[in-house]
Design goal:
39% of the residues lie in helices and 27% in strands. The protein is an alpha+beta fold and 101 residues long. α1 crosses α2.
Length: 101
């Protein structure tokens, strides 16, 4: 699902709000999440999961095409840990690889 599909689904489910208002709400939520993570914060949405930053040490990787060594600097990556409720719903879904539309 992409953001435009999410907005369209929300517009169908939530009466009284226009697609433009929902688009703004989704954009503001996304910006707030990015801002929180970029300042080292943690985001927790009960029943869904949590987002945090994990530190990656510098390392020497290899270019898969040429085999040449490529230095990778230290960095932080976003880590998502699904919540118990989400894990349960996904584990008990019939077949997650079929299109349920």
């Amino acid at each position: 699902m992409v953001r435009s599909e999410l907005i369209a689904l929300l517009a169908q489910d939530i009466e009284g709000l226009s697609a433009r208002d929902l688009e703004l709400a989704v954009k503001l939520l996304q910006e707030q999440m990015i801002d929180t993570l970029s300042h080292g914060g943690r985001i927790e949405i009960r029943g869904f999961g949590s987002f945090s930053l994990h530190y990656r040490r510098p390392k020497l990787a290899r270019n898969p095409k040429t085999g040449a060594p490529v230095p990778l600097g230290e960095r932080y990556v976003v880590h998502f840990k699904p919540g118990k409720e989400l894990r349960h719903l996904v584990d008990n879904s019939t077949d997650p690889f079929t299109d349920n539309d």
